[in-house]
Amino acid sequence: MKHIFSIILITLLLISCGNKEKMSNDLSILNTQKEGLKHQLDSINTKLQAVEEAISKLDTIKKLAVVTTFTPKIKDFNHYVEVQGIVMADKSVELHPEMGGTVTRIYVKVGQRVSKGQTLAQLDASILNNNIAQVQTQLNLAITAFERQSRLWEQKIGSEMQYLQAKAQKEGLENNIKALRAQAQKMKIIAPFSGTIDDVFAKQGALANPQAPFLRIINLNKIYLESEITETYLNDVKKGTSVIINFSSINKEISSKISQVGNYINPGNRSFKTRIDINNSNNEIKANQLADIKINDFSAKGIVIPSNLIQKDRDGNTFVYTIHNNESMHKVTKSMVTVTKEYNNLSYISDGLSESDSIIDKGSRLVKSDDEVLIAQ
């Protein structure tokens, strides 16, 4: 076609040059030649338009946008609420002496394992021990006097009043010695449970008092994570909800479940507390350690696509561009979709797509509905 147009144009030029050389002086002849040339020009324009249409049909590749596509598949989708938590230990306490006194012995050191009921330290109880010894002597005498008086009373010798006085004397001294021994016991620091000595604050020879902590004992075999979650997620976060816990400081990740959900909304930040029990038999996780918690508030199986492929029109409707094959052409179709959840740059599509659809990936921002495109292989 291009060659034909070139030949016609050259012929007209030659005719024009020939006419210029043999130009007539007769007006009627010139007018006739003018009309002939105009007719030829109209004919050339018609042929030129036909040639351009033919070129357009044969040269469409140069005008088509090149895109890539992919076929969506049904797979599992999980959405997480991400919060921070802090490690707490039920068996983590600072022990205080029940009574004041000078520290005479500290039997443990930091890092030492101790058993429940073990004596950890001793305060000066010399005065109490002397009192106990004195009362014990008096008690021994009172017991002897009571036993003799009791035998006499059984033989109907002596008065009932003497028997009762001896009995009261013995029982009174027994109660006194019990009280003194109880006070002496308070001069000891006893382990309330088995664990590890985390810190010792007191010094041997120093004065200890109930207001100051003496030492800290901790058991990390069973710990829990405490976190606060905004009340927006009250319907999604329940007891038994799966969680993924990451301790970045020790490069450790574990899976667990929420063991308790608080029933109180903090009016200051509109959040509620959750508890996650953790087995920590190797004591790798420490008290007050921070953790990143991902709470699985939504799980489903369906169409999942990259979020960057989803667009919004001026009415706020979400859509993606798909390919509709028509004979040999690939035509762009605007497909409206329903996005239920989005997480980690992936979106769960609950309506609008199927596994048979072909979604435009690269080039989706350069096309519009009804465009013809070329699909890159």
Please give the structural blueprint.
Layout: H1 2-21, H2 27-58, E1 65-67, E2 69-70, E3 74-88, E4 92-95, E5 101-106, E6 113-114, E7 119-123, H3 126-154, H4 160-185, E8 188-190, E9 195-200, E10 207-208, E11 215-218, E12 222-230, E13 242-247, E14 252-257, E15 260-261, E16 271-279, E17 290-306, E18 311-312, E19 318-326, E20 329-336, E21 338-343, E22 346-351, E23 359-360, E24 372-375
Parallel strand pairs: 1-24
Antiparallel strand pairs: 2-23, 3-12, 3-17, 4-11, 5-7, 5-10, 6-9, 7-8, 9-11, 12-16, 13-14, 13-17, 15-16, 17-22, 18-19, 19-20, 20-24, 21-22
The gist of it:
This protein has 377 residues and is α+β, with helices and mostly antiparallel strands.
SS summary, helix count: 4
CATH 2nd-level architecture of the largest domain: Beta Barrel
Task: Let me know the largest β-sheet.
Answer: 9 strands, antiparallel
Helical percentage: 25-40%
Summed up, the domain count is 4
The total beta strand count reads 24
**How confident overall, as mean pLDDT?**
86
Overall SS class: alpha+beta
Strand content: 35-45%
CATH top level of the largest domain? Mainly Beta
- The residue ranges in which pLDDT falls below 50 over 5 or more consecutive positions are none
CATH topology of the largest domain: the name is: OB fold (Dihydrolipoamide Acetyltransferase, E2P)
Taken from the alpha-carbon principal axes, the silhouette is rod-shaped
Distance between the termini: 32 Å
Order of H and E elements = HHEEEEEEEHHEEEEEEEEEEEEEEEEE
Radius of gyration: 49 Å
The CATH homologous superfamily of the largest domain is termed RNA polymerase II/Efflux pump adaptor protein, barrel-sandwich hybrid domain
